């Protein structure tokens, strides 16, 4: 036979998944304008074979020719518009309406809107499709399969590959589908490869191939098989051939599949018969790849405007028709930031500190007035102090971090600290103000007793380092504020009571809020992981549901799919970055340095980095052997 007489030639094809061989030197021929029924039990390799024919599976050895070219070669049109492919799973976007699904694939096939509308009306009448505005997620399994079948037919391909198209479909509709397939193959010379669990329905096919354990046992017309094996049903033919395969009476070499009449010979006769090799059975013209490539049209472009519009429209509908998706992508950044602002980086509050004030016998000093607590003398560089413990406690130890707990006994306060009722104890001696005045006047001549009584004694529980160090730093800062105000009242030189170490800060500030430091890093981290999570989840989901593969078989390039996802998710990243910047620096008015627009750009680019990582992560997950085996 000549080259144009065949739509598909499969020659000695071997396909492995890991160490398991799925296709074993398989050979198959599909003539142009015929319905070819591929029959076999689940797991025999039918779906793998079809995936290889449409260019979605690489084979280890052998050759596959489809419509005069090798799948995946430049200009072959496969994957592409030459093939209509209906996979075993529905492989449709659940957020699509019935009409959306037809139009999505029609645009991918570069059909005009008018042509798509006409085909939609035809297919609606043929397949009794659900209402056009019904979402696919609301359709039954049988309705979804009808839509999936319509998608494969929308562009009137030269080769139609249907993987279990009639499962779950009404018997009357199944008969209509077969009648339609029979009509288009005869009138338009379209070739059809169909797999089905209903073996007897393939009696309407022009030719059937019986497949088991990765091999094609035979291929011939149904009538010839029934006559040769003298049976009433194709199931009996399949049973006989399966038994012979188990008994080793069928060929295991790379020879071409023999016809049914030779399979009915005895085993001895078969072994003595010369069988033409598979290589010799390839029709002339299929061997010249260069000649074929010249005759074929150039391959589809890397970026197609209609395809990109269709992909972006798909991504948008998947997004805004999914309430959970919208809530997660838009509300989650705000929620995360609010949790950060109200929980992370905040100063500790209400740490109980026991106060023992022997100078005034009260930690709260209700009747104390700051006037007169520090009185400078006019002619002498001296200052009289009065009840400074109350001045410190009432006017300086007022920070929200500290909660004052009054004790009248140092022993009682210490015991409560040991039992965890307070985090520390602060003790003022009875003559604290007098001793502090003498300390300033005597200087280096001050007695040990003066130094002892002028010291505020603090005992802290350091079993919790974070609390202990925070309280320690806070008390030190509060005392320095107290000492500076005291020096000002006494007309001492500015900085008299300061620690004799000068600290200069090149970047940032000593008094910078810890949250100001924490927020940028957290925003960057959130944007990165939002981008990574969103990208990997969407791409893995589309590959798992078959949408990715079905789109590529229809002619979409991987570059277009990735570009459409990254473009759409980039827009979402821009919005997420805007709402985060607006919340922190406009609504809550946290301090920032530099250009806010540059900050926005950096934050958005971090989301893009996350998307790139998500794409890498998706590739890693999908290449895990266990994932490939079970999905």
Explain what you see.
A hairpin with a 2-residue loop joins strand 1 (6-17) and strand 2 (20-31). The chain has four domains: 3-82 and 160-165 and 190-296, Rossmann fold, CATH 3.40.50; 86-156, no CATH class; 314-342 and 512-630, no CATH class; 351-489, abc type-2 transporter like fold (3-Layer(aba) Sandwich), CATH 3.40.1710. It is elongated and about 130 Å long. Strands 5-6-7-3-8-9 form a six-stranded mixed beta sheet, sandwiched between helices. It has helices spanning 46-53, 98-108, 113-127, 141-153, 171-188, 222-229, 234-246, 260-263, 267-272, 289-295, 305-320, 323-343, 388-395, 410-418, 432-442, 448-453, 465-489, 514-545, 547-553, 558-587, 596-622, 625-630, and strands spanning 6-17, 20-31, 35-39, 61-66, 83-86, 159-163, 191-195, 207-212, 215-220, 351-357, 374-376, 383-385, 402-407, 424-428, 457-460. It is α/β, with parallel strands linked by helices and 631 residues long. Residues 8-238 form the ABC transporter domain. It is found in: Membrane.
Q: What's the Cα radius of gyration? A: 41 Å
What is the CATH superfamily of the largest domain? P-loop containing nucleotide triphosphate hydrolases
Q: How large is the share of residues in beta strands?
A: 5-15%
Structural domain tally: 4
Secondary structure tally, helices: 22
């Amino acid at each position: 036979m000549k080259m144009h007489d065949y739509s598909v030639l499969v020659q000695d094809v071997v396909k492995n998944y890991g160490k398991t061989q799925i296709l074993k030197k398989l050979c198959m021929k599909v003539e142009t304008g015929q319905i070819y029924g591929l029959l076999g039990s689940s797991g025999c390799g039918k779906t793998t074979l079809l995936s290889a024919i449409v260019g979605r599976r690489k084979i280890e050895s052998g050759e596959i020719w489809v419509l005069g070219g090798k799948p995946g070669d430049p200009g072959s049109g496969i994957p592409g518009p030459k093939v209509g492919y209906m996979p075993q799973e529905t492989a449709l976007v659940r957020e699509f309406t019935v009409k959306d699904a037809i139009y999505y694939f029609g645009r991918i096939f570069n059909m005009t809107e008018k042509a798509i509308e006409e085909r939609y009306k035809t297919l609606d009448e043929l397949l009794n499709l659900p209402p056009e505005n019904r979402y696919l997620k609301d359709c039954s399994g049988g309705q979804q399969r009808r839509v999936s079948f319509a998608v494969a037919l929308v562009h009137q391909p030269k080769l139609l590959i249907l993987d279990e198209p009639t499962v779950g479909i009404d018997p009357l509709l199944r008969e209509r589908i077969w009648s339609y397939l029979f009509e288009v193959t005869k009138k338009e010379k379209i070739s059809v490869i169909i797999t089905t669990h209903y073996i007897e329905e393939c009696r309407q096919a022009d030719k059937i191939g019986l497949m088991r354990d990765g091999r094609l046992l035979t291929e011939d017309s149904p009538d010839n098989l029934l006559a040769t094996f003298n049976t009433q049903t194709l199931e009996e033919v399949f049973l006989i051939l399966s038994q012979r395969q188990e008994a080793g009476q069928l060929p295991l070499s790379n020879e071409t599949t023999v016809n049914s009449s030779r399979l009915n010979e005895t085993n001895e006769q078969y072994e003595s018969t010369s069988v033409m090799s598979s290589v010799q059975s390839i029709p002339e013209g299929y061997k010249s790849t260069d000649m074929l490539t010249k005759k074929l049209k150039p391959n589809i472009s890397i970026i197609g405007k209609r395809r990109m519009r269709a992909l972006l429209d798909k991504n948008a509908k998947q997004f805004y028709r999914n309430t959970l998706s919208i809530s997660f992508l838009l509300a989650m950044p705000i929620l995360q930031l609010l949790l950060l602002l109200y929980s992370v980086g905040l100063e500790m509050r209400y740490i109980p500190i026991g106060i023992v004030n022997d100078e005034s016998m009260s930690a709260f000093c209700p009747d104390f007035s700051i006037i007169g607590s520090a009185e400078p003398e006019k002619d002498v560089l001296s200052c009289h102090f009065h009840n400074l413990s109350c001045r410190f406690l009432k006017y300086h130890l007022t920070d929200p971090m500290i909660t004052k707990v009054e004790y009248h006994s140092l022993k009682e306060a210490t015991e409560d600290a040991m039992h965890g009722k307070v985090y520390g104890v602060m003790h003022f001696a009875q003559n604290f103000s007098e001793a502090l005045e003498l300390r300033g006047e005597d200087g280096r001549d001050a007695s040990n007793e003066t130094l002892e009584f002028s010291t505020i004694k603090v005992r802290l529980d350091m079993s919790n380092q974070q609390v202990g160090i925070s309280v320690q730093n806070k008390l030190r800062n509060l005392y320095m504020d107290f000492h500076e105000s005291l020096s000002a009242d006494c007309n001492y030189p500015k900085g008299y009571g300061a620690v004799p170490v000068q600290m200069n800060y090149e970047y940032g500030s000593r008094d910078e809020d810890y949250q100001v430091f924490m927020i940028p890093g957290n925003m960057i981290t959130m944007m990165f992981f939002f981008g990574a999570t969103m990208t990997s989840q969407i791409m893995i989901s589309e590959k798992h549901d078959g949408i990715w593969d079905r789109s590529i078989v229809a002619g979409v390039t991987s570059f277009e799919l990735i570009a459409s996802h990254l473009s759409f998710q980039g827009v979402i990243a821009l919005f997420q970055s805007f709402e985060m910047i607006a919340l922190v620096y406009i609504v809550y008015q946290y301090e920032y340095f530099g250009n806010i627009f540059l900050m926005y750009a950096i934050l958005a680019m971090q989301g893009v980095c996350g998307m790139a990582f998500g794409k890498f992560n998706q590739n890693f997950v999908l290449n895990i052997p266990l994932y490939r085996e079970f999905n």
